[in-house]
Amino acid sequence: MRDVFTSPIFSPVSSVLISYAERIKHADLVHISAPATLDGVLALGQLEAACLDLGLKYRRRLYTPRHHLPRDAQPAWTEEEKGLTVIADVEEATWEVNDRPETSHVHLVPLNTSIEMGEKNRRLSGALDPVVQAGALAAWLAPNGRRVRKMRPYISLGLWLRGALDASMDPVHTTMLNHLKEEGSVRIVPLPEVDAPSPGMIPGLSERQLKRLAKVWPKMDVDQRSLALSELILPCLMEKEISTPRLEELVWHRMVVGDAPMDLASQAHAIKKEWPEDETASKLFASSLLDGWLSSGLLKAGE
Fold first, then answer.
1. How many Å apart are CA 85 and CA 33, to the nearest integer?
2. Beta-strand pair 254-256/187-189
3. pTM above the 0.90 mark?
4. E-assigned strands of the chain?
């Protein structure tokens, strides 16, 4: 694994996160908390993997997500009296790193960052979500940990789930995808090269035509592939349910681990479809999902 703290997108926040990692490493007991949502599970999984690989004593808590609380209610997380509380607050608004209040607990919230991209080196802004922060902390704590390495490909999935891609290209997501690809954690492939993509992710897409295209894809050259994909997604461009940036990611940049038949975005989509509406059931579902993920390295409901 390559150190993500060396990436320019982490430069505004790396010192803060490393100080968090030091506190976690030396705590007698770590309480890790997140809401019972898919984003919460993704963040907790990274932190738990590091605790397990290091042999740190920890406790997990999945608290009630905000959509199950009254509109004017305070967040459901709490700070424990003993040990170090680490909260992966995936539902919090984005903060400037210097505006964060000093706290006795570790509070992971989305943090603003920016990076220069493109031929003109335009500076683009984005947010480092708590999932990718948790992944960075886990890799710093246990860079050679067996579980941390298994969970590594998923550190950008929280960015995928955020709404940034529904408005424009997300430079943080793009940077992290390139980072994971270059270090060998994931392969980035176009849609026809995914063996078992989750259906229903792209409004207006003909699943039958996609299957036909996948069969002839290996025999096509680059130009033929580009033309065929453009024709396949043409009806999708008229759909209002999906943004062009997210559509482009779903068509050209699927994250695949090794030879797995299903890409990571498809895994997330399938899980969200199964997620229970009931508050108690959702917590049990999240806990079971997290246990299975830590055990197998596969993010799959029912594991």
1. 8
2. antiparallel
3. yes
4. 30-35, 58-63, 84-88, 106-108, 111-117, 122-128, 187-189, 254-256
